[in-house]
Amino acid sequence: MRWFSKSALTAIALCACTTAASAAVNFTSPNPFDTNGYGLGESLVWDFDSVANPNFTYFGNALPFSVPGLAAAPAGDATRYGFASPGFDATFQINSGTLSSLSFYLGSLDTYNTISFFDDATLVASFTGSQLTIPNPANGNQSAGDTNRRYFFTFGAADSINRVVFNTTQPAFEFDNIAAAISGVPEPSTWAMMIMGFGLIGFTLRNGRRRIAKPVRI
After folding, report:
1. What distance in Å separates the CA atoms of residue 56 and residue 180, rounded to the nearest whole number?
2. Which of 101, 114, 112 is nearest to 42 (CA)?
């Protein structure tokens, strides 16, 4: 029984080592009013005008101009933009693969704006407007560089981000020019490690039953 337990633990550890990297969502925002400065390896996937990557699905609203009391175009943005409003989140769903990095232009950031990153239904990380503008206040200014800028997010291998949600409790949360780098299927070496791990689990389970089983006397 002791041999079985140790072997099973070894097999589980072998499987786990393929996804042992810790979650690590990081962001930077080096320049204000940066609408199109995509990150390394990124390409434009959505701009609410002519670019709509089929690997992304957008659930939310978009406008071609500012509407008082509803949404304000990010500073310097004269094209269509997306936005979330109270009770109506805006969501980007990645249909295949996961995100390794993501960037977008955010407008008039407020304390009540929140962006969240998910692995399916599991929340991996979220950031409020106040966290994004530190050390400056997220005061919703529609023309200041502190609250109108491009943000760059990078993700750890274990994050498996495939859904991004923009949420706000007051009008509104605006964004445009989404760029991304997508990670595909696991590399062959990763698959090999996983197969070895699952195979060892099966072997230990089968042999463990044989060692535990006792003959039945009639």
Report:
1. 10
2. 101
The angle at the Cα of 172, spanning 169 to 170, to the nearest 5 degrees, equals 25
CA 117 to mean position of chain CA atoms: 4
Summarize pLDDT for 189-202 with one digit per residue, the tens. 444 454 455 455 55
CA atoms within 13 A on the CB side of 36: 5
Considering only CA atoms, which of 168, 111, 177 is closest in space to residue 141? 111
- In three-state secondary structure terms, 203 is helix
Distance from C-alpha of 67 to C-alpha of 116, rounded to nearest angstrom: 25
Residue 85 sits at φ, ψ, to 5 deg, of -135, 165
CA distances from 197 to 1, 10, 16, 168 (A): 20, 9, 8, 43
Q: What is the pLDDT of residues 85-133, one digit of tens each?
A: 999 999 999 999 999 999 999 999 999 999 999 999 999 999 999 999 9
User: In the numeric block, which tokens belong to residue 87?
Assistant: 């009770």
